[in-house]
Structures are given as C-alpha cells and as structure tokens.
Target: Outer membrane protein beta-barrel domain-containing protein
Amino acid sequence: MKRRAWKATAFLAGVSCAMMLGVLPLRAGTGATQENEEDGVTVPQGHKEAYEAAKEQMKEAPQEKHSSGSWFLAGAAGMGWPQADSGSYGNSALGVNQNEVFTGGLQGGYYWHDPDKWGNLSFTAEAIGLYTGASSGMSIAGASGTGGAASGATVGLLGLGGTVGYRIAKSFEPFVGFYGGGAIGQFSNSGLSGSLGTVWGYWFSPAVGMRYFIPNSHWFIGAEALFVFMGDMNGFNKGAQLTSVSGSSYLYEPIVMMTIGYAF
Model:
C-alpha cells in the first residue's frame, strides 16, 4: 500500500514538472510581444522601427504658418448731410446747409483677429479716402443764384485711423473707431461768377459700424457711420487772390455708408 502511494506521488510530481516546463516557453513568448511606450504612444515592439520612421517624416513635413491677421481692401458708398456754422463772405452772411450728398471712397489696411491671443477682440489699422460732393444749399446774402442747384461743394478727405471690434458667432462684428487727416474743399456759386476757390483743412471723425464675414470666403460686407468734423475751412484761395471767410470754423457732415471688402 505504501508503495502504491509513493508511486502515485511520484507520478503527480512528474506531471507537475512537465506542466511547468511547458508554461515557461509560453510566458517567454508572451514577454516577446510586450508593448513599449514611445513619446506617450503605446507601440508594439515589432513596430518600433516603423514608428520612428513615421516620426521623422512628420518632423520633415512643412508646418502650416499661423497668422494673426490679413491685409484687406474695401469700397464704400453712402450719403452725407453737411452743414456749417454761420459765417460771412466779406460783408455778406454765409451759410452752408446741404440736404443730401453722395459719399464714396476706399478703405484699406491690416486686420488682426486671433482667438488664441485676444479672444473675440479684433483690431484694424487702415487708410481711408472719401469723396463727398453735390449741389449744396450754400447761401450768401445779396448774391443771386445762391441756395439752389447752381451752388456746389466738393470735398475730398484723406486720413488714417483704426477700429476695435468684437466678433460674435464667428461672422458678426460690431466695432468702434476713429479717423483723421487732411481735407480739401472747393466751393462754387453762380451768383459769384463761378468758383469761390479751394481751401485746405483738416478733419477727424469717430466711427461706429458692423461687419459681416461671409462664411468660407474672403469677402465681408458692412455698414459704417461717421460724424466728420472739418476744420480750417474758412479761407478760399481763388487763384492768386485769397478770399477770407470768417466764422465757419467747422463743416459738419454725418455720413452713413455701406461697405464691401476682401481680405487677402
């Protein structure tokens, strides 16, 4: 009986050893397929060379340049309503009160908008040129033909300025701004034998408006309102003769324009 028990024990021990010897190669094979971690990415050991080659190709690939803004150009057209303080032409009273005049021009400059740096804010630095002119309601006491279609005023404005905007829903952008520069005006009246001459001055204006950026394109449209103050428009140079006009320190002109532009 004891012999049989000993044989059974020896047999079980032999089976256990055989099983252990069979498991060891399996564990070694499993260890051979273990995964390595490269740069935070889990890579099977057999694919390490391919991963390194792909990483080198990514380094050599051209990187897309990040831009915070772009150049733009816009055209503008609208209406203005100029008027001036009371003044005098020699001993005659002078007044300017135009009803509506066409206003057109160009705006161009650089537009900044980078959500990573400034959130919803945007900025522009721009140059502006405006033309405003039509028949005016110029009136000079004692002169015939004044106040009608024969009276005219043509004013050109050139200046620099900028705006600050706030982007809403990726497309709409209300903004405020300020412009200023030089102005040249020419005035005429049939009752005074034609042109009163030209005059140089300066101008400045606050601005408020709205831009709409058309999705998936470079185009934008907008509306802008200015309240232009033109100063030193109080002396008309008619050829070699300087005709003094006193009192009209400023010509005021509210302007409303529609704009359409393209960002490069």
Remarks:
- The longest strand covers residues 194-213.
